[in-house]
Amino acid sequence: MKLFIILGAVNAFLSVALGAFGAHGLEGRVEPKYLETWKTGVTYQMFHATGLLIIGVLLGKLPASSLLSTAGWLMVGGIILFSGSLYVLTLTKISVLGAITPLGGLSFLAAWVLLIIAAVKYL
């Protein structure tokens, strides 16, 4: 429980910091399409930071379940793969990194499905 709340808060903090960096540090230094790519990474990182917070709270309220823990770790992995690949893509313009991004998206989708199953089963 505590770990996912901490990971959620850390990722929310990083999302705000990286969003500010993108808006103020990258504007005019990278092409507009890459700035949009950066913003997409920031947006998805914040959404899933919130998901991690929700999972942390649910772990404290519901019976112990690997469904929620697995969902949390999939969100962490998704943030690294999805948002991380978009950040690196923006800074390096190495387009092959775009092939990693969908793996993060699949991690996000799987995490949300597990959260749905846990809600149906325990709430």
TrEMBL record:
Pfam families: DUF423. This is DUF423 domain-containing protein. The lineage of its organism: Bacteria, Bacillati, Bacillota, Bacilli, Bacillales. It comes from Cytobacillus gottheilii. The chain crosses the membrane at residues 43-60, 67-88, 94-120. InterPro entries: DUF423. Its main location: membrane. Belongs to the UPF0382 family. It is a multi-pass membrane protein. It is found in: Membrane. Coiled coil: none annotated. It comes from the Bacteria. Keywords: Membrane, Transmembrane, Transmembrane helix.
